[in-house]
Design brief:
single chain, about 80 residues, mainly alpha, Non-ribosomal Peptide Synthetase Peptidyl Carrier Protein, Chain A, 4 helices, globular
């Protein structure tokens, strides 16, 4: 799983957030557009694009996009 591709896929889940402002260090839960719907879209994106199953707990326990990436890629 490529970090840059994951970051792009993650950023694509947001409609109004500038993709250039989203980095691996972004605290995604602090984004204005973050919601339970976006969380579900991230879970679906990980499953569809990377065949990786993540849970709400994975999202809750990850502070940044990079931490979420590491958690997913370790599976």
């Amino acid at each position: 799983m490529d970090k840059d591709a994951f970051l792009k896929s993650f950023a694509d889940q947001f409609d109004d957030t500038d993709p250039a402002s989203i980095t691996l260090d972004t605290k995604f839960k602090e984004l204005e557009e973050w919601s339970s719907m976006v969380a579900l879209m991230i879970i679906a994106m990980a499953d569809e694009n990377y065949n990786k199953k993540i849970t709400g707990a994975d999202l809750r326990e990850s502070g940044t996009i990079g931490q979420l990436y590491e958690r997913i890629s370790s599976r």
